[in-house]
Design brief:
The complex is a heterodimer.
Chain A: E1 5-7, E2 10-13, E3 19-24, E4 31-38, E5 42-50, E6 53-57, E7 64-68, E8 74-78, E9 87-94, E10 103-104, E11 108-112
Parallel strand pairs in A: 2-11
Antiparallel strand pairs in A: 1-3, 3-8, 4-5, 4-9, 5-6, 7-8, 9-10, 9-11
Chain B: E1 4-7, E2 10-14, E3 19-25, E4 32-38, E5 45-51, E6 56-59, E7 62-67, E8 72-77, E9 86-92, E10 102-103, E11 107-112
Parallel strand pairs in B: 2-11
Antiparallel strand pairs in B: 1-3, 3-8, 4-5, 4-9, 6-7, 7-8, 9-10, 9-11
The chains are: A mainly beta, B mainly beta.
Chain lengths: ~110, ~110
């Protein structure tokens, strides 16, 4: 158990819908990273927040957005969902923004029908 | 752009034998190289990492080597056990303010009893 929690574990929804994925980092960690894992694209970095502020952006679609709240938990919002958005979404946390190991949560499996 | 190539995609070994997984990175500014183990239905678990000022690091049956000149690094697992069976991912990152991880495509390791 990494100490990173993610909810929900599974999410099934329809195309065009909007969902919110939630992540709570390890106690004391200030930085949260979001990754997408799909069969064809592998593990891809989406976005990073550090102490409430966006720090880096990767291959994140404009339909996706995220934020980190004052209590340091983070949410990833996915809107106008398409079939191709079906994937595992992982959250990872680290103490600082750089120089420390990232610990991954158990993931949220999103299925878009 | 940033890219990490990982080989082989699948690896089958007899219990007790050694397993080697190799990765090559493209971004010469990369200086942090973690390895993750992912079991079915779980998030990636950090098993070992190495920074660019070190050529080799060992932790019990696991070792990682880094060749900065050639831009490649390898994971070595000795005395493999059935519980080592999983998907292994290498990753590369810059030690800058972000630390986002660029992952390889993964190696499915099967250890035959």
């Amino acid at each position: 158990d990494s100490g990173v929690t993610q909810t929900p574990k599974h999410l099934i929804t329809a195309t065009g819908q909007r969902v919110t994925l939630r992540c709570s980092p390890r106690s004391g960690d200030l930085s949260v990273y979001w990754y997408q894992q799909s069969l064809d694209q592998g593990l891809q970095f989406l976005i990073q927040y550090y102490n409430g502020e966006e720090r880096a952006k990767g291959n994140i679609l404009e339909r996706f957005s995220a934020q980190q709240f004052p209590d340091l938990h983070s949410e990833l919002n996915l809107s106008s969902l398409e079939l191709g958005d079906s994937a595992l979404y992982f959250c990872a946390s680290s103490f600082y923004s750089g120089g420390f190991e990232q610990f991954f949560g158990p993931g949220t499996r999103l299925t878009v029908l | 752009g940033e890219n990490v190539e990982q080989h082989p995609s699948t690896l089958s070994v007899q219990e007790g034998d050694s397993a080697v997984i190799k990765c090559t990175y493209s971004d010469s500014a990369s200086n942090y190289f973690p390895w993750y183990k992912q079991e079915l239905g779980k998030g990636p678990q950090l098993i070992i990492d190495i920074r660019s000022n070190v050529g080799e690091k060992k932790d019990q049956r696991i070792a990682v080597t880094l060749n900065k000149t050639a831009k490649h690094f390898s994971l070595h697992i000795t005395e493999t056990q059935p519980e080592d069976s999983a998907v292994y991912f290498c990753a590369a990152s810059r030690m800058d303010s972000s630390y986002k991880l660029i992952f390889g495509s993964g190696t499915r390791l099967l250890v035959r009893p």
